[in-house]
Every structure is written in C-alpha cells, then in structure tokens.
Amino acid sequence: MIAAAAPSLRDQFGRRIEYLRISVTDRCNFRCLYCMPDEGLPWLPRGEILSYEEITELVRQFAPLGLRRLRITGGEPTIRRDLVQLVAMLRAVPGIEDIALSTNGVRLIELAEPLRAAGLDRVNMSADSLRADRIAAIARRNLPFDPVQAALAAERAGLDPIKLNVVVMRGINDDEIEAFARLTLEHPWHVRFIELMPVGGMRELTWEHVVASDVVLARVGELGELVRDTGPPRGNGPAAYYRLAGGPGTIGVITPMTHTYCESCNRVRLTADGRLRTCHFGDHEVALREPLRRGEPLAPYLRAALADKPREHELLQMRVGGLRALSQVGG
Fold first, then answer.
1. Running DSSP on this structure, what letter comes out for residue 172?
2. Which of 172, 166, 206, 173 minimizes the C-alpha distance to 189?
3. Residue-level pLDDT at 1
C-alpha cells in the first residue's frame, strides 16, 4: 500500500507554506532603534489579544493542512505571563515538528531550562552589541543583559541551534562585525548579520545606515578563510551561511534590502490580535480572531489568504503595509 502524501499548503505561486510565526504580545521591554518608537505604541487591549487556548486551537486546525513549524515572537514574547504553558500546549498538537522562539534574551537565563522542558526546540536571540553601554543605547532601555551569558544558558538547556541576530547599522554597531564573527570560532552558534530595514516610524534610520551583506562578508573574511556552508543549521529562515575555517559555528547573512528572497518564502504571520499577514511588509491580511471566537472552521480563511499572498514584498519601495514598527508583526 502506498502511503498518502503529506498535506501541503501552497500559495498562488506554488510556494509551500508550512511555517507560522505567532506574535503573542505587541509589547516589549526594549525600544530598539530599528524596531519600535522610543515612546512605544498604543498597546492592544487585553481582550483583543488571542488567548493561549485560542492560539493552540488555531494551530490545531492548521496542522492537518500542512503546518509543521512554529516560531513564537512578539514584541518580546518572554514578557507575556506563563509562556512556558503555551509552548507545552503547542508541543502537544499532532503534526507540529518544530517550535522556535525569537527573543531579546533578557529573560533567557531564567527561562531557557523550563522552556526546553516544555518542548521548545531552538532559539533566535537578538544581539546588536556585545557592549553593555551600547546595548542600552540601541535598546533605549538600561536592563542588565549579557548576550553571551544568555546564549550559554540556552546552550546548557539543550536548545539547538542557537542563532544570534545582529542588525548591522552603519556608525552605530558596524564596528563589532568582527567581534561577533569571532564568537563562531569559540562556540557552535550561528551569528546572522541582518541588513537594516528602515521602515514605518523608524525613519531616523535611513539607507545611509544600511550595511550591505557583501560588505559584512568582506570584513569577516579578513579574519580567515570564509567558505560557504553546505549544511546550514536547522531552521526556516532566508539566511545564506558561511563558516570561518576551524570554527564550530557559522556566519549567516540576511539580505532584505540588497538581495530579496521572496521566491522561497514559506511563511505567514499571526499578529497578537489574530490577523494573519501573508507578507512581512505587505498590506494583505485576514482577520481570524472573530471567526475563531465564533467557532467557525478556519481552513477556508487560510486558503483564501494564501490565494492572495503577494509574489514579493515592497520594502525597497518603502511601502510597508501601514506598519509603524517591526514589533507589530514579530520582526
């Protein structure tokens, strides 16, 4: 007997969609220069935010259609109470193969072990500097935080792979490119340099602050032989990976500004208030909270959304779907 083929969700361009990024809060304990205004945003009322039970029910309905991978995001997801409980609930959904977390790392030392025990597989941590004073300047919040110690806590907990995301900004933190790259010579971590995306209300950061990934790789290459990695770390992201000779970790580059990767997009995003966004920087979204709360099947809404998923984002034209900040859609 021939086994039935696994279900597959595809958009109008034939791209297989199996990855959902779930924002659990629009709030954050940072106000990073490129992500959120210093004064914050009008926060969503509690009643408009999906409960953990509602998120789990949505995933339970999507999994039989082909959803396999989840990422929990925010805002900063670890500031929402009982996040460990959500991870455990999502882990119990049949068909879900991978659960990741995006975090600024501030609470990772205390939460890494219980999150892993609940079923979290891996973690991406934002780390835009290795200097305490500069972390505070970029985050515009002075919270005690050492990204290296946070990553070590995640490693001890068994979260793997560990990815450090560095948004490179000319004149702000681009002098630390080599220091971050050296971490891959000492640890089995994956440092990913991300091109700045000057969007929404973050217009004080402009094209002049963007450091092209080709420049980043040239700088890293001065540390030693840099070769393309043929076995990139497990994950769903668009990074291209390289390795410094002899290093246990890798160096990745994510290039939304200079080399778009929309043709391989495999994801959709769920906002904290239950809107399904089919493109990070587009304006197409479908409201799922109301039908979910009415008890309606969600599959027709998902299929309709994918039928309208755009071919590519409009970030280069600075059209970002009404977003004021990246924090509104989980980065």
1. T
2. 166
3. 40
Q: How many CA atoms lie within 13 A of 20 on its CB side?
A: 28
Distances (CA, A) of 272 to 27, 72, 80, 139, 327: 10, 11, 11, 22, 11
**Is the predicted pLDDT of residue 217 greater than 50, yes or no?**
yes
In order of 77, 90, 111, 230, 288, the CA distances from 114 in angstroms are 15, 15, 6, 33, 30
pLDDT band per the 50, 70, 90 thresholds, residue 317? very low
Give which of 164, 222, 214, 169 is closest to 189, Cα–Cα.
Answer: 164
Is residue 2 in some structural domain?
no
User: Rounded to whole angstroms, how far apart are CA atoms 176 and 127?
Assistant: 11
Q: Which domain holds residue 301?
A: 19-329
The verdict on residue 38 lying in a domain is: yes
Q: Is residue 7 part of a domain?
A: no
**pLDDT at residue 231 above 90?**
no
Give the CATH number, domain containing residue 287. Answer: 3.20.20.70
- Tell how far CA 151 is from the center of its chain: 16
The secondary structure of 27-50 as a DSSP string is: --S---TTTS-TT---PPPGGGSP
Residue 8 lies in a domain: no
Instruction: Count structural domains, the chain.
Output: 1
Kindly give, in sequence order, each residue whose CB lies less than 8 Å from that of residue 16, ignoring residues fewer than 6 positions away. 8, 9, 10, 66, 266
In three-state secondary structure terms, 195 is strand
